[in-house]
Amino acid sequence: MPPTPAAPATGRAPDTTAEVRVPYGPLLTFATDVLRGRGLPDGRAATAARALCHGDLTGFTTHGLTNLARLYLPLLDSGRCDPHAEPETVTDTGAAVLLDARRGLGLWAAAEAMDLAVERARTHGVGMVSVRGGTHFGCAGFHALRAVEHGMIGLATANCGHQRLVPPPGGAAPMLGTNPLALAAPAGDHPPFTLDMSTTVVPTGRIRAAARAGETIPPGWLADADGAPVTDPAAYDRGEAQLRWLGGDPEHGVHKGFGLGLLVEVFSALVSGSGVGPQPAAGTVPTARPDDDVGYFLLAVAPATLRSPADVATAATGLFGALLACPPHDPGDPVRYPGWHEQRRSRERTAHGVPLTPALHDELRAVAVAAGLAFPAAVPAGGAV
Prior knowledge:
Helices cover 38% and strands 16% of the residues. With 385 residues, it is α+β, with helices and mostly antiparallel strands. It folds into 2 domains: 1-78 and 353-380, Orthogonal Bundle (Hypothetical Oxidoreductase Yiak, Chain: A, domain 1); 88-200 and 245-342, Malate/L-lactate/L-sulpholactate dehydrogenase, NADPH binding domain (Ribosomal Protein S8, Chain: A, domain 1, 2-Layer Sandwich), CATH 3.30.1370. The strands form 3 sheets. It has a 7-stranded mixed sheet with strand order 2-3-4-11-5-6-7. Strands 9-8-10 form a 3-stranded antiparallel sheet, with no helix packed on it. The protein has a two-stranded antiparallel ribbon with strand order 1-12. β2 and β3 (96-100) form a beta hairpin. α1 packs across α2, α2 (42-58) crosses α4 and α4 runs parallel beside α5. Belongs to the LDH2/MDH2 oxidoreductase family. Keywords: Oxidoreductase.
């Protein structure tokens, strides 16, 4: 098994001003081949690669290919993630299923769980699949959108296992993870509504990306032990700053962000029996870490089992069309909803190449060399795929 290459160490902040565009199709093939080389079966390697590249296509780059060498290959190489894992059905009531992912790669395990939820929703109107024993599943929106492909509404949540990153409001010790959630719904004739968010102000990936780039961050993302804002992103990994919940402080609704984080913990961990943030990790696997035994909650809702599909589509077109038609304060900045920009960005990047920072481009080329693979050639400046 080829070793995971270390990120290039240049001794200076990486140059992020001159992006490199790489064709999406060959980039997807490259990611699939890398994961297949780590032992994943062909179909699951392809699904995982699509989940990973989804971040780069839509603009959620902190959950895209930047995590290939930094997160997913180390998971596989260390044995914390089993490339040959086969999920086990623990309970099946028809509309609701409990699975044990058995340390499978979350990028495909959560996707397959949502596909199962969709299958059950066709019969029951709703399908819920709860998963324990998982690993990091990437962009929550990718999994939620799998329901939209079938005309359904998808909800995807994940906790962070026993990982503790954020203290409760007024608390001195971290207790929960960033606990992401995503809701995706058909919007009729318009791009799907896709809300993909952490319940903290930003995910840890945004903090670390800023640190790698040598940038400062806005006040409000991090705070020190006294609650004062911290703008040096490197302070987070030095243990000198903590993430903040959405809302930030009591005057601006921090209880809402914290409450959403707990909502995700309940759905993802209490329902499935996965690792829970506020409890110490048992560590049944010798190489287990606090961010193992992640829980997922995948829900598919089929409104067309309750109403005429044509009526649902007409109502969705009207709802999201009315939002798009809302008069803007600035005529040059029209009103949009979550998911609109992501679809536009995805289409543009599919046509003209996926932008990579020079640092990430170098990292992925190093992965290709270590794996004995060719890396896709860049798209010429101003060119199309």
